[in-house]
Amino acid sequence: MKNILIINLLSLFILGLTSHLWASETSLETITVYGESPIYDGKVVPARQRALEDAFRTAVRKVIGTMVTAESYTQNAISIDDSIVTKAKGYIKTYEILEEQTNKGSILLKAKVVVSVEPIRDDLTAMKILIESMGNPRVVVLIDEEGQETVRHSYAASQITKALTDKAFYIVDPFSKGNLTEKEILNAFKKGDFRGLDSDKLKADILMVGKGRVENVTNVGLAGLVGSIVNLDMKVIRIETGKIITEQSIRMNGVGANSESSYKDAFSKAGEKISGLLINEITKVWGASLLNGRDVILEVSVDDYMKLKDFKRRISQLFGVRQVNQQSFKNGKALFRLRFTGSPQTLADIISTTYFMDMKVRITELSSDIVKVVVR
């Protein structure tokens, strides 16, 4: 039996290592960006380095833009720039310079940059900006755990709740106001249907439900200890729509002086381990619904088509700009349709505070769906 337990533990280690490696490989994002810098006193080498660092900052901002809205960014721009963007190079895995142009005393680089996503997500979460941009969703955690008499007591749920609290999620106790009974919860688990637990009863936006099962219990050699292997299956539901955000499962071992303490050890470790997976998926899926963007019209008055092309390239690099489509160019006026994760007001704010190198850009008009600028 001892050999069986050791084999199981080794299997769990290998599975965990494989999962970690897979997560590491999939948490990279490849982005093609531009970087610019003036050339001072004819010194190209330091200018090239500054342009490359500018490209790194743009790449990191683009990744941040997949996690927070433009409004959230502008509200926290100083904090984000000081804590994340200024150390952009630390998030860059690899890069390749695709093109280099020197013109009018400046250098322009086009680079393919591979960015490590999870460290940025972790830093935004630690700053509480990521949760704030999600609208501070309220979360309920309910786990039917074998070995426990009630869903109010779960070792795994305690660890998941702790992890969520550490990440600034707002945790709701569904029993605190007497809106739900133990019987209603158990019936929902039995049926596998939680639609009856509506948001009015739960007072929450996200429901995390789980089932904890004991797979194996065994005595560990002559030490007098008890070992156990448990399975924890979790499902995260967006209460408003009833849609499943993510489903995650984990298998974990534990050891203790008796069966109960070995369950506690195993389920506690399972809850701690799975919480990171759940939080990552929630922030990705929930954030995606906020970050699809809206159409904003940008009217540009400019007297030169080449300058217009240059301006379009620079606009595409701005925070929150997902897509730039040129609609027309006639009599010195161009019309662009932007997919932007914010309001026209926020777009105007970002444009007005952006350094456009050799261009002077001035906002001339702003309304509920259009921003007008003059480029000189």
Element string (H = helix, E = strand): HEHHHEEHHEHEHHEEEHEHEEHEE
- Summarize model confidence as the mean pLDDT: 85
Largest sheet: 5 strands, mixed
- The general outline is elongated
* CATH-level-2 architecture of the largest domain: 3-Layer(aba) Sandwich
Q: How widely separated are the two ends?
A: 79 Å
Oligomer: single chain
- Count of folded domains: 3
Radius of gyration over alpha carbons? 26 Å
CATH class of the largest domain: Alpha Beta
CATH superfamily assignment of the largest domain? Answer: TolB, N-terminal domain
Strands across the major sheet, in which order? 5-4-6-7-8
Q: Spans of 5+ residues with little confidence (pLDDT < 50)? A: 1-26
Strand content: 25-35%
Number of helices: 12
CATH topology type of the largest domain:
Rossmann fold
Which characteristics define this entry?
elongated; Rossmann fold; five-stranded mixed sheet; 3 domains; Alpha-Beta Plaits; Dodecin subunit-like; alpha+beta
How would you characterize this protein structure?
The chain has helices at 2-26, 44-64, 70-75, 77-83, 117-126, 129-133, 155-166, 182-191, 199-202, 259-290, 305-316, 344-352, and strands at 28-38, 92-103, 106-116, 138-145, 170-171, 206-220, 225-238, 243-256, 294-301, 321-330, 333-340, 361-366, 370-375. It is α+β, with helices and mostly antiparallel strands and 376 residues long. The protein is elongated and about 80 Å long. The termini are far apart. The relative contact order is 0.11.
